[in-house]
Amino acid sequence: MGLFNKLFKNNKSNKNGNDEDKDVVSPKVKENIEENIKYIKDMLKDSDDIIYREIWVGEEFQHKLELVFVDGLVDKSIINEHVMHSLMLDSRQAKPSIEEIKKNIYEVIKKAAITGGDIKEIDDLDKCITSILSGDTALFLDGHPKVVIISSRGWQMRSVAPPETEMVVRGAREGFTETLRVNTALVRRWIRDPELKIKQMQIGKRSKTDVALLYIDDIVNKDLLSEIKERLEQIDIDGVLESGYIEQLIEEDWHSPFPQMLNTERPDKVAASVLEGRIAILIDNSPFALIIPTTLATLFQSPEDYFERWMISSLLRILRFTAAVIALVGPSIYIAFTSYHPGMIPTKLALYIASTRQGVPFPAFMEALIMEATFELLREAGIRLPVPIGQTIGIVGGLIIGQAAVMAGIVSPLMVIVVAVTAVSSFSIPSYSAAIAFRLLRFAFMLFAAVLGLYGIMLCLILMLTHLVVLKSFGLPYLSPFVEVNLSDLADTLIRAPLMMFKKRPAILDTQDKKRMKDLRPEEIESMEIDRRNGNDKK
Amino acid sequence: MKKIKVYVLLLLILSLLTGCWDKVEIEDRAFVMAIGIDTSNQAKNYIVTFQFPNVKQVTSAAGGGGGGGGQPNFSISEVGDTVFSASRHISTRLDKRLFLGHTKAVILGKDVVSDRNKFLEVLDTLDRSYELSRKLRLLVADGKAQDILLKNYKFDPDIGVYIDDIFKQYNRTSIFPNLDYNKITKSLHDTNGNAIIPVISSGKDELKIAGSAIIKNYKLAGWLSDGENMGYMWLMGFVKGGDITFNMPTTDGKEVKVPFNITNTVMKRQVIEQNGKIIYKIKYDVEGEVTEYSFQKHGEMFETNVLGTMEKKADKVIEKMINDSLKKFQKDLKVDMIGIGDYIQKYKPALWSKVGPEWEKKFPDVVVEPVVSTHIRRIGLFK
Known about the structure:
The structure holds two protein chains of two kinds. By secondary structure, chain A is an alpha+beta fold. Helix content of chain A is about 50%, strand content about 10%. Chain A has 20 helices and twelve strands. In chain A, the strands form three sheets. A five-stranded antiparallel β-sheet of chain A has the order 1-2-4-5-3, with helices on both faces. The longest helix of chain A has 30 residues, at about 310-340. Chain A is elongated. Chain B is built from 14 helices and 14 strands. Chain B has helices at about 1-20, 55-60, 85-90, 110-115, 115-130, 145-150, 160-170, 180-190, 225-235, 300-305, 305-335, 340-345, 350-355, 360, and strands at about 30, 35-40, 45-55, 75-80, 95-100, 105-110, 135-140, 195-200, 205-215, 220-225, 240-250, 255-275, 275-290, 365-375. Chain A: This is Spore germination protein. Chain A: It comes from Thermoanaerobacterium butyriciformans. Chain A: Belongs to the GerABKA family.
């Protein structure tokens, strides 16, 4: 934390990249088109993908217009059909009087000539360059001190595909893509509320990445919103390549292995979080949205929980929490029991373990470490390998290494089972970043278990809990709602209570609009049923 | 940064200063399944026998891997001045660390319980052991414990597990008490040396647990036979199952034995003080079923009150068992091991403060009135 503050205090002196540039004074658009084009060409020197297209309009072609855009970032059809075609051909058919054009060519072009959807005018040449590099088309007009920016963004992009890291059985199959605009539109499709705000800013001195804040204005906690905005504005970095950059730069405690922001590539998850009163950050070029604030309990929630019946969802929740515990302490319990407390294992199992470990040359800790390391290695290799070969690693790893190691007597068969169960458990946690945190801590637990047995595991658990209790995500205690007594919030933690009980938004978020559902009691539904059966249906 | 330094320091302290002094890998431990303790006439006082399973054989029996072979268990005897020193000296003959955490049974030779001092010594050693489970079975051998442990039994060569499994079925017969180490030592220390300990004996290929040894003042005072033992179990309310037999007359004047299987019993107790006498009333509601009986003639079931007769006969048999056992405790031994004093102390504290101090003297004069009412359930389909 101390270092975090220091980092930001230093930055406060030169707060924002854009502010600094303003001190240099950005040149204004001149009346003379040649000067403007010269400036642009100077700035974008040696960039061969920039296209300059001169157009001459007017009766005797005395008016020079110039289009500037980046090849590949623009939708050529927009430029051809809605800009060039309009300016060069369609405008002639309209035949406005020559005087009119001479006098006010800009007005004519803006009002009548361009059929493109989105245009705006600016007078700052540097902003103009940023627009060009973002995929817009700049239209320079001779004798006019402004530039028309025509939105013509259109590049090759991945289409909307199922979110591969967060698959569900029941629920939407759409996942975010790498294009911010597509992503915000996906969320808009879930919430058609005018209060859903998509506040955009650019972060990164050189990358100038678009970052969008999504929230519902009359729900969100304003303090939280201004806190996030402030932290985002303080970022001063050359480029933001992925939402992970933002996450790491604005999180509170960078020592922690636990993610203080939830990342997701599911628009429905973002929509649900925003409706709860959380804030989502979407970043251009990243299919992962960040959700703020995040607590430990939210890492165990999957969108599917709310779509299936509550009993099944509750069971799955309990299963996931159990899986987290196994992923955390599975191998360390094995180490502690076999090395220190064989009296705590049932007799027949103890004899079995002792029997399978006959001739194993390593102590239980080394055995566990070797197998865990092998597993992590296989997992890492599995990600790197191309998909067709990826299957092979499963066979090589699971069957050959597992079986061969046991046959060779290097590890005991029970250890293979423990490692396998631990691995499966760690993958059943919905949040990948939480799962890797547990995986990392697993090694710490193993070390403690090897040195101190069960006592060590307890010690390590206490250390971890102490850290979790102190940890905060944007002012919200990471362990809430477990740390404060609030029954209504507990309904969505270890279990997922019936939807009827979620009448209020999470109290821990302290939202403006706290109510979320009308108080519709089952009796009322029942009486409605009876009414309908009796034919007294209120029409 | 300071925080990290503190963490690192803590970790170093943990790993460097504490060490793994009690860390013994599971395969380096010798699991003792049963212990036998006998006295010796030689220079040393005790012969202690330890029985270990052959760990290598465990997996081969389960069908996995190679290894194993040889006999299924080992027993080693060691002599020592004390039980503890014997357990230490046995390390000179073992390649593994002795581990008593899974010991299922401790068998005391008859000569150990016959000698008060030795019995006290042995008990103290067992009580002090931090590894021994309080749930293990304490038994008295009808001869030498060593003789029981040095054999290989066909049913289950693992004697500790064998004994433990026999105990799990105590309510099939109720002829030996289902007492573990914890209950026995509690009784010994609470009543100044009085307890019942089940008796074990060995045949050629199998073990048998039946009857019990009566310990009075930390010394063997007598034995309870199978029937007396069941009487004791009745008095304590331990009977939850078991079988009794009563006689039914036949038409030709003879008698036929009818087996009765107890399925459940409920015991209710009451103590009344009358004319200076303590009356201890026990009411039993016994449920069970007659497992075999051939009717003498067709329709007997409905004409005569056969069930009523049977129930009365069963009552008599149970009452006789209780009275026999009672006589043993009240008249022969004069020791309250049947929980009357305990009951008065718990539920009639006023009376206990009066009779408690000289309970030893009062106990033989307590009037015990057992009332048994048997109910035959489920008469079955046979006519």
